[in-house]
Amino acid sequence: MYKSCTRPIILQSRNKVIIFFSVPVSTYGGNDDHTLCKFPFVYRNTSYKTCINATRPHNWCSTTENYDTDMLWGYCQGN
To answer: How far apart, in whole angstroms, are the C-alpha atoms of residue 2 and residue 67?
Structure first.
C-alpha cells in the first residue's frame, strides 16, 4: 500500500507571489523506519500537517493517519 507524504514548501517570486507545493518526507529510526510521513496525522487528539518535535529529541511524524491508534512513527529526514 502506498503511503502518501507531503511537506508544505513556500517559494516567493520577484513579484512576491507565494507558491505552495509539496514534497515527500521520508523517515529514519523510530518504529517504522524508511517509511513516508503521512500528513495530516493525529497525535494526542490534535491534527498535524508537518513534522513535530513533541516528546522526542528530533522532528518526527506519524507514518499513518492516526498515531494515537497505530503508534507508528519515524524521525523526519532533513529536519
So the answer is: 17
